[in-house]
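re: that chain from earlier
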Amino acid sequence: MSTHISKVSDNIEALPSVYSTLSVAEIIDNLMSAMNSSGELIVGLMPSKNVCNEEIFNEFWQLHTALIVYHYDAVMLMRYSLLSALTGYYSVAFSELRNALESVIRGIIFDLLAIPQYRKNAVNLKKINGFKAAKSFKELLELIEKEIGDSRIVPSAYLFDLMESKLTDFNPSAAFAKLLEQLKNWGIIDGHLFKIIHDYYSELSGHAHRVHPRFLETGARIATYRDWIELEPVPEYLLKYLNKFIDVSGIITYLVLRVFSIDLANDQYLRCVDWKEVANIDNELARLSREYLCWQKVKELVESLKQHPNNIAEN
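^ sequence. v structure.
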């Protein structure tokens, strides 16, 4: 533990040696705002027990349990990613950002497959083959049709029970671009956001697959003339990482809220959002949206929900 604390101290203290104290303070402030805003918005835009009864909250929760499970996994990966970066393991940190992004995308896919209108238009998923002889989405869709028919799967995580009991060899090949194409065809993301997410994933994959020496922990030190045996801090890499962390957290926040918005279009749920709680982070969200495109998308989505015709509380 003392070694980790020492490494965190060394990495943070190295930043002002390359960047101004003001710029370092600003990026750390933005980092903290991104972490706070993401959590506050995702919880805040669910029906509140303080506005409506607990039954409405639980009902909404059940609709999105598949996504919630995967999002929590992404949150854990983001936390460990940040710890890795602050202790000088930059390439590991970038790899964990990639895993977090992939986890939430898969959670969204499963969550939307619980809804009939989406799974009936899952053309891109059907093109993903199973790894070696394993089953993939084609077989999963056939299983849902047989077991569920045209009904919505509630809770959405019940889909995992089906897979565990009747499709144990479900193991689709890695096909991140096809998952994104499916989200685009479903109208969850547009072409611009597709490119942003895909470009981020491709860049982060370089660290995960170590495709070039510069993606190695040692390579990062050699390229910047620093001690690669002791893994001397590289402020340039840490600052780059912190900006990537803020962007990826914005992407994840937008995607989760975009899926929530499908059911928030129903006034039964939208009227139960505690907008006073959401307003507590207006200033943080406004600042992030001015500096980061993905957070601008988050702000636009939140504003559209506030102005939705079914939002009795705001209209």
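The chain has one domain: 2-306.
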